Amino acid sequence: MNLKPETLSKIDEVITHYPTKRSATLPLLHLIQEDVGHLPPDTSEWVAAKLELQPINVLEVITFYPMFRQKPIGRRHIKVCRTLSCALLGGYKTCATFEKEFHTHLGEVSPDGEVTVDFVECLASCGTAPVVMIDDELHEKVDCAKAKQLSDQIKAEAKKR
Amino acid sequence: MIAPAKPDLVTVNIDGQEIAVPKGTNVIEAARLVNVDVPHYCYHPKLSVVGNCRMCLIEMGMPAVDPATKAPIMDPATGKQKINWIPRPQIGCGTNVSPGLHVKTTSPMVKDAREGVMEFLLINHPLDCPICDQAGECKLQEQATGYGRGYSRFVEQKNVKPKRTQLGPRVTLDDERCILCSRCIRFSKEIAKDDVLGFVDRGSYSTLTCYPGKKLENNYSLNTVDICPVGALTSTDFRFKMRVWFLKQTNAIDTESSVGANTVVWSREGTIYRITPRRNDEVNDTWLADSARVLYKVVKAADRLAATETIEALVARAAALFKSAPGAIAVVGSGRSTLEEHFLTRHLANALKASAQLVSRVGQGDKLLISADRNPNVRGALVTGLIKTLPTQQLTDLAAQIDAGKIKVVVAINEDLSAAGLTAAQLAKVAIVYLGAHANATSAAAKVVFPTLTVFEKSGTLVNQQFRIQKTLKAVPAAAGATDDLVVLSLLVAAAGGATLPAELASLWKVIAAEVPALATMSFANLPETGLVLDATPFAALPFVEGETLHYKPAQPAVAAATA
Ligand code: SF4
Ligand code: FES
Ligand code: FES
Q: Cys-Cys crosslink for B374: which of B88, B117, B349, B361, Cβ 3.0 to 4.6 Å?
């Protein structure tokens, strides 16, 4: 496992927050996913060794939570809300627009490596449906036109790189 | 031994029956004591309680008291104290008794709860009982009979999961049948200390898995098959071989070490199909090593000995050998023989005025159910007086005596003398009378060979490391051409000029009880299923080889002698 020195020091620090090491499983997984972008295959063993557990104990946690990713994703993570309010106001179309713009399917890495589009549960901004989160940024009232605009913006930024 | 402190008793009421049970007992166990069955899947008496299957839901209540005065509130209708019933069902496995606890296991609410749980459990169940090995001993099948609807309201698609995963060399998993009770996971972690199983994914996709790259291959893996309440975990050896209801069950003892784990041998028409553990809370709880389950293969082994002469002819030839060498005979018995055989062997040695010895077999103990002493019944030889000291691994004394020409005839019982260190030249120098079930270098060199029985073909008793005398019973008929060891031994005793001793267990035990003070009050028939602990103090000074195992702590010889 190739983690940044900051991540490693955060990990060592966060373990001290809990009365038993085992309790630090979730925070550790979050830190690793933040650092690497996903949880590589050796995560279970690495975390288990760190917390004096068995690898299967960690694997159970990783597979339980859908937000832990076991495969790499695109440079940006586009999360389109699929729950009631957003669905009623066109979330499905918004999602399809992103898929079309980046020639990709849900959960996959787009061919240019720029994005992964996911259809997710309520993002807690139902009043401004349909909503989309791109990485940590919330975008409100994203209809197809706005989805196209956001996609263009991402593509433009990608060109600059 | 210090007697355990008398547990505090708590009186509870289950379906109207009052019973006093020890504090800390849960409702399932308390109900068992009044013969009330609380159906359950995830609860197992020897594992931690997790309460995840919800099959054991019961209704419970406590006697009502006035909140202010704490005075009991009486029910005018019955004249008894009123019971405040909790309006929701509670899990029986996770509820420990408290004084005055009232439990209902037959109320409409409980029946409803059981039916609801069963319906959910069967939603994704493949219902493949006709091809399932567990059929006939499946808790899901049993509870479905009691609480199932008989038809399904589920119109959606069932989940599809892996049907035949090899979890390890001996265990096969059908994930579709798994009801996610986690018994196997807890067993692996808590008892086998090999935490490799777990549930991955979530909800109805939850799947029992072995950690990728690891295997469920510890020597206790088959216990997961025993405790799996459904047919999800099956024994690769037993899979698809036989319907369990055709099999005859015989209580026996695991002979691979001095632990003496209690077993059940399952057979049909003279063929053994499997060996499973039998619960004995003082010896093996509900567990059994995998290695103990394949021992039955010795019955039909290719190297079984079979007689080519009548037993009378064999005895006559042995008698002639005995006469030819008075005072120059040695007897080598076996730590694998039963106590009754040891007793007759002692008589044989006495009649021949021969020295008797055993051969020790020592291995690594596994701290659970295999001890360092791989002979199951060395203590039986001590109790019957066949030997006074512990056996050695090599028969060096005997070898020296043979070399010196002092021993001319050796009676070897179930022991390969060459494995015990005698050279081929030494074997050739003496006349050997061999009693045993299988061929080996000694039987090949022997002048007279009596083919005898494996432990599965005979009854007897064994004394384990706790000095617990336990019965092992005959599961299958004797192989053709083989004679019961007791018959051979009693004939040999007579041929050697000794007393006429019965070979049949009930009569033989009368003689044993009369001659061995430690066994004076016993008979074969009245020996309890879980055995009886004999007084070990006469042997406290002997340096036994066993280390700690489940329910056994070796006594420090010095300390034991001091307190004796
Ligand atoms: S395999 Fe059997 S013992 Fe293990 S969780 Fe599933 S049902 Fe329970
Ligand atoms: S339904 Fe989309 S944010 Fe709540
Ligand atoms: S046995 Fe009580 S919840 Fe499973």
A: B361
